[in-house]
Write the structure tokens for this entry.
Amino acid sequence: MDTSVEISVEINGVPVTRSAPAEALLIDFLRDDMGLRSVKLSCDMEICGACTVLVDGLPMSSCTTLAADVDGAKVTTVEGLITDGVLDPLQQAFIDHGAVQCGFCTPGFILAAKALLLRNPSPTRAEIVSALDGNICRCTGYSKIVEAVRHAASA
Amino acid sequence: MRPDLLEKVSGQAEFISDVSIDGMAFGKIVRSTEPHARIIGMDISLAEQANGVVCVLTGDDSDLLTQTDWGLFYEDRPVIARDRVRYVGEPVAVVVADTQAHAEAASRLVVVNYEPLPICATAEQALAGDAPLLHEDFRPISDFYFKGTARGKAGTNVFQDYLLERGDVDSAERSAHRIYEHSYSFPGIAHFAMEPHCAIARFDHAGLTVWSGAQSPTAVQKVLARVFGLPIARVRIIVPYVGGGFGGKASVKIEPLVAAAARKAGRPVKVLLSAEESMLTCRRLASNITIRTAIDADGAILSRTGDIVMDGGAYADTGPAVALKSAHRLVGPYRLPNLRIRARAVYTNTVPGAAFRSIGGPQAVWATESHMDEIAAELGEDPVDFRSRHLLQRGDAVIENLRPLDVDPAAMMDAAVEATTKGHNRASRGLALAVTDPGILPVAGAIVRVHADGSVEVRSMSVEIGQGVRGVLQRIVAATLSQQPEVVHILDPDTASAPYDWGTGASRSSMIMGLAVEKAAGDAVSKLLALASEAFEVETSAISLAPGGLEIGGRSVSFRDLFHAAHGIDSGDVTGQASITPRSLDGKLAQAPLFWETAAAACTVSVDPDTGVVALDTYAGVADIGRALNRSAAEGQEEGAAVQGLGHALFENLVFDEGQPMTAMPLLYRVPRLSDIPADWTTVLIENGDGLGPMGAKGMGEGGILGMAPAIANALARDHGVRLRDLPMTPERIWTALSSRKPHAS
Ligand code: FES
Ligand code: FES
């Protein structure tokens, strides 16, 4: 179809060029074409953050972003936070502090927190709250998520 | 470490929505737009001709089904609406296509003609003498999923009418000094699990296989066997990780419909609901509760009555059990010499009610704990002191014939008060207590298999839904087998390989499945010892287990060496198996409940007088859990439950206007966010090792949801002079209450 567009992105450090329908959403591109199933679909209307990915280091809802709009950018999912089999300090802190229950919100939270720590390595509690307030977790009650982020920041 | 957490932080965890089956097609449900109507025509021809469409399932496909209606207490729910719909959102067709996008596009081409029928929009309307009936005849089934039979009345909309009574309330009230009566309302609440409902069904030569995010896989299996006329042995249910449930994925939900679509399509079908559709699938039962307490001249409680009316929606599901438990949970940890509580649940033309974390608990505790503070205020007494004068003690009966209370409520209350007092005056906090009897059936089985390479496989139907059950089972099996936890692998629940278990809910898995795997691992130990004794010709008393194998008279023998000696090749396994039944542990499990799930909550709040916005400033929750099998997971259960309680208290409300859902979408339905959570949050776990579960554990995970709403309401009343009796306590309601208070204050 002539509505296809070519998309060149760096996904988790690997350059990728694919053609995709112009209307393809980033979440479908990442899950279905790239097999990155850590990107979770929940509300499908940009209010829960489950589908958060990093685009050039900034958190974005992939459920409401077109794949074509990330052409030329660097996209990161939680799979890409692991280097040589070693977890990112945030991933480790989420485990250590029990900040994960069902785990469905977890990739989105870790990436939103990663974006925060990239621009502010030692955030206050208030800064953590405001950075993660767009992500919903129905399981944990949030306290342990804050603990995990604080710990990862001070590590 | 919990084995699921590494997979979850690294993106490797497979949830049901991630599962893909060869040849699978995608189903999109067409839903009723009418709360109550006859279906007088349906045109599916355009949809059938649309791009990629495989088939369209409708109510005309009853010949695919051996049994067209199913349920847990009543067979009241059609697999797919035939000639009538009873709520907005009820499935009337499933469009199956080669892709999700094609299914969605074609689903919009289905045209349904409805002839509206009179509706019961509310429970009050449903109870009226001339109310339209939602179900003309009642077909109750007994001991099907929960024990017992619902006491509904055919010819009415009442599908449960339960009475809990002791003593003589009428004469107590006649001799009373004062009688206090208040009414409290509690709205419908969405479970709002982050992963919406999803199932995949496949019919093949082996029968029916269903992958589902189900909390009660064996209930799904039983219902599907009936609906499709298959032996249970030919219905297989597999459950990967589940992205939250809270009861919303318990009993049976979308699986019969998805399987019917697969049968019609002749190929596997996956149905993944949207978050909105999940909100149209089930909800917590709304309730109106009137509670009345008689007091003597010394301020002692003489009697209590409760009248509970629950809005159960269009189909009963497990609503009869919810109503029964709400009656039990209205009692509270108090000495009430005379008691009469009636709990009714009624059909209405709204989304079906269902189990939700502590069934009937938050509704009942909202009423009973608000009422306790209201009485204390009338008596001019501190609520702590008023409660103290009536508190039950360990060993007392909460309800006759049930297990005596196995916690000390005074210690729990003190701990909650202590944690929130810190420098404040003791009075300036809201308090709530609760005791609940989990409806746990002590029936579970497990298999523990030790392989030649020292790896251990555990087969159980307990679903990992975030509570950490796999970590708990791993720990118990490793300890029983004297192995490192890392060698113990908990397999995905699969009815083809794991024994029967009642289900994952009601705070039962760590305790009941914990006991089952402990016993199964013990069975494996006996078999390993017997095998080693035979192979090496030594007494079993000289053999013990050690990491990686056995110790035989001071010598280390690996499992591989054992099997080599026993079998001639270094291969083999030993399978331990066990069941827990009500007769296990010398009959100690026979009496209900297996433990009392209790809660004490205390908080302080502040209010913006200009907007009515309330903020939770400090919160403390206390649970007596016997023993923490995984401390951070146990704390997380408490905290997560309490924050759901905060949603009940301040924000959440599934509103129906003449049967139309007004807030059933994520955008319009406010759940708690991080900025609602105070930094000053305390979780206290009381551990006396006095539970019947492994290492003295009791079950847990529900108690935290109980106390939040009444604790906040009680804090608002004490510190801000406004008493709210309707949930949620929205800024508008609080502001209105504050405004109407002012004339009195001046
Ligand atoms: S799924 Fe994208 S924000 Fe919720
Ligand atoms: S862990 Fe389940 S939604 Fe956050």
Q: What stands out?
A: The first helix of chain A runs from residue 26 to 33. The radius of gyration of chain A is 15 Å. Chain A touches chain B through 49 residues (CB under 8 Å).
